[in-house]
Batch of 2 targets.
Target 1
Amino acid sequence: MSKEKSGAAQSVVHSLTVQAGPNIAVAKYWGKRDAGPLNLPINSSLSFTLDHSDIHATTTVAASTDFAKDRIWLNGREEPVVKRVATVLRELRKRCTDPARKKCGLRIVSRNSFPTAAGMASSAAGYCALTVAVAGVLRVAASYPGELTAVARMGSGSACRSLLGGLVQWHKGVKADGTDSIATQIQPAGHWPINMTVVVVSAEKKLVSSSSGMQTSVRTSDLLAHRAGALVDGRIAALKAAHAAKDFARFGELVMRDSNQFHATCLDTYPPIFYLNDVSRCIIRVVHGLNAHVGRVVAAYTFDAGSNAFVFSEPQHTALVNAVIAHFFPGENSPKKRTRLDVGVCMAELEARLKMKPLAAGTVTRLYHSKVGGGPRSYSTAELSLMDTDTWLPK
Ligand code: PMV
């Protein structure tokens, strides 16, 4: 049996494991201005990187001259090296200054701790972890994070924002080569602790991928052209100011408006794209109902290209927000029902205000609890590796 088939390598193997969190946009990226592999956006965007304790992509990369070709395993299955992965690998090899490592074949094993391709930014976490891990094993000479964010962007546009923690801006840039279309940190995670409740309405893969959806929108939606040309920059400035001032009422309203406007551009696309479903719309109703009941914005929702909700709250309101979500959307892992006594709002009064009863148990499949977190973390220890260090195949 050849070495390649058995997996074992005799030459030195360089390996690194990287864990990265997804990010959730508060000012959405939707639309590319190039047809090629650069993924240059028509508008800048702003996002929070999620803490990776619970929700993350983990990627182990091994490099050896014994590996005849690049191979990749995603969530337990070997997959072909698709064009976008090949682009990222090519860009990183171009920047590799170590002649021995430049010749290495790569083995990549990646796993998500959350549903893939369901509008939970799995590709952002995955391409971020891939970029950082391959850059590490190939000793890539690129400015960090600047130039590396531009490489991650070629895998999945929004991935460039996961290379940094906290509140992150992806600047659309103006250059045709994309060198100024990079991500920078606006505020570190510690500036303002915001919690997120992720309501998984559907773990199914979305019917329209973001790449193909945004292409159709750019071609057909007048509203998207107006949004990108005249609205997003002002929204980003306002979001940054509200975040700097820790003004949740203002920040939350802007986040919800931006999510709604993004989904309006989807509806304005021809033929229209529907990412939200009836359960998503119920979540929107409950959040507005709760805010009206309390008398100010204590919860804010946002939805990416999928039906799953990300609900933000400040720590002093998270128990209330979670209790209300768990009450109306009982999921597999919902905590026990809460009453007025421990969260300050009477669920019966809220039901009456909303004219809405809790949805059937299981309509929502899962709740994840996360918070704004830091950028990717690298590990060189064998315990965290997803590869067996004898065979260099997935564990
Ligand atoms: O990076 P992509 O190609 O998966 O597109 C992401 C698009 C949205 O998630 C809907 C918005 C965003 O800015 O993340």
Target 2
Amino acid sequence: MNFSDTNQDLESATIMTSSQLVSANKVLLIEDNLGDARLVEIFLLESDLANCEVINKTSLSDGLEVLRSGAEFAAILLDLTLPDSRGFETLETVVAQFPQNNIIVLTGFSDKDMGVQAVKLGAQDYLVKGEFDAGELTKTLRFSIERNKVLKRLEETQRIANIGSWEYYGVSDSFTASDELYRIFGCLGGEKECGDFTPLNTLKPLQEAAVGNGQLKKDLKIRRKDGSFRYVFVQCTAHKDELGHLIAQGIIQDITERKLAEQEMVKSRERYQEIFTQSKDALFICSLDGKFIDFNQATLDLFGYDRQGLLMIEDAHTLYQPVERKNEFILKLKNQKSVKDFEINLVNRQGETRECTLTANIIVTDDLVGYNCILRDVTEKRQAEKLRKARDLARQSAKMKEQFVASISHEMRTPMNAILGMSNILLQMDIEGEPLNLVKSIKQSSEILLGVVNDILEVSEIQNGKVVFENSSFDLYEVLNNLVNVMQYKAQEKDLYLEVIMDEGIPRYISGDQLRLNQILYNLVGNAIKFTDEGYVKIYLKKLHDIGDSLQIKFEVEDTGIGIPEDKIEAIFETFTRIRQKDRVFEGTGLGLSICKNLVELQGGKIGARSGQGRGSVFYFDLIFEKAEAKAKPDAPFEDVPELPTDAVFSLLLVEDHKMNQLVARKTLERKWGNIQLTIAENGQIAVDLLKEKDFDIVLMDIQMPVMDGYEATKYIREKFPPEKASMKILAMTAHAHVSKDEKFKEYGMDDFVLKPFKPEELFYKIAKYVKRHNS
Ligand code: ADP
């Protein structure tokens, strides 16, 4: 080995100062001849390696012990002839156990040849005792030092690059590897930490595989000493010598971090791919001149093309509308590089216009100037929004209509109260002939008008779901009797025959909503009489189902009237539907049947009609009632209450703000009871003040009034007055029909109510009832 040339190169390569070089070095001298050992020390002292420390051991075993302790040496000066080992065996022992060390063999003058041989066996150099001088010793030691440094640097480089290296000689099954290789396999302290674990087991199959090609490069996953895995890249060259022994070298690089990053990238790419394909929004990349580059399924769905078709589109931008909007979009994109939630319409392949929002970002790469785009179809959302708005508007207007109807009906009832009241007063006067007929007509017309107002209010309540049904027992026979009694009068006017025909076994007492049943029957029978000029009107009651406690009854009202064209039958149950008659005008609003239909259906029944033009009609409905026991009738109107004599003396406080109504009430009452002491209060406040001063037998209290309304006044009287006064009789007077239905007046502490416009008899009856009770 010619090391002197390389020595020059190494010297020029080092950048460390010489003092640094020497201070760090130790030399192990294994030499039993103390004279020779002393000479080495003297030579070193003379040289510029003066600071080099010499550790002298006089036997091989002592030398090996020092090496095993882990001490590092720049070189080992090894005498081959030692007390415990002689010749090459000495060298081989050291090389085998410490292959990385620089061994400089010391030979005798007589066996110079041994030196050459020693170098072949793995020594770095040899020195001939008695021949070498300080210069030669220094030179070879310097080489060792430099070699160590190079090896250290190599080791460092390997460590930084995570690259380990190894060599394998099959002939001696010898495996040498760099520290980094051991580290990669998880033996951080190098080979000595391996124990039973040998990296060679992993590498052997790779070496075998490399033999065929001469070399092998491979990424693989290896198991480390602690059982964990690392990803490595292995590059290995291998061949067999002429005797068939394998010789292999290789490097192994830990690429775990890179591999994991790669895997992470693949995963995240897959995730993004998944989002891309699964997205409900159209995601695509498009060139600035409108060519599709990449797109997902949703894009195909939205544009309405297949893959091929979409790629063939010359300029996708022509599909956007309106044109000004499209131009604005492209301009914005070019100027601002991005566009967010831009509203635009898209006309798809089927010619449908889809409302979309568009978000786009410019992309500029070597081979593309374009943009990525998210196009969201919001057509349905927008439609839903429009519907919601329309619905809100409808609700709002329904509410307004409800309020309007309620207040209008109230406003109409009040003056009607006056008209009806005054007609009644006139009728009580001694008039006859023409004036009597005129007053009768006024009264009749007012009653019709009142009926219309009530119907409108009723429809409004039904439409707003405000109807509540009663369930109490009543006398069905009595209902029918009353019906016939009232209707008989109208029927007789037209010479119609009116009759009730009832199945056997229909019980007399049933439980349900009597008022509603009445309302339906009056409507149907009233219509039947109205639309019939001759013949009869028959009312049938048929037992449909008898289910234990309950009973289903079918009511039919048959007439021989003008009938209804078949194609109109369904329509007459709608609100405001009336059938035009060429030559005749019938009174009515077209609300009655619609109210009946609602009242029947809300109680779970069915209503319908069979008819034909000129063939008469049959209207029918069914309802379920519970069977009930006869009960004593409480509060039966106009019964059990003896008249309050016309000359009775009693005091009455009328609380009413409306002048006309004051007049009607006053006239009506004074005509009935000549001695009545009647006081009028304009509102609740005045009434309360009056009551503080004076006692009254009864109070008639309007509800809606300025300053203090009837509810407030009643509450005040009930709560703030001394007991006898607080319990005084108070009758509510209201034009609000629901006050009576909801029994709201009771909530406010009133004793009873009179609905305006009042029927004189009802007013007289209620006053008599309470004044009498009060007096007794
Ligand atoms: P109104 O009687 O107030 O007009 P309805 O809702 O009670 O309103 O009736 C609606 C329409 O149905 C009537 O205008 C009439 O044309 C038709 N109709 C109702 N009952 C009969 C009947 N018994 N015979 C013929 N036509 C009828």
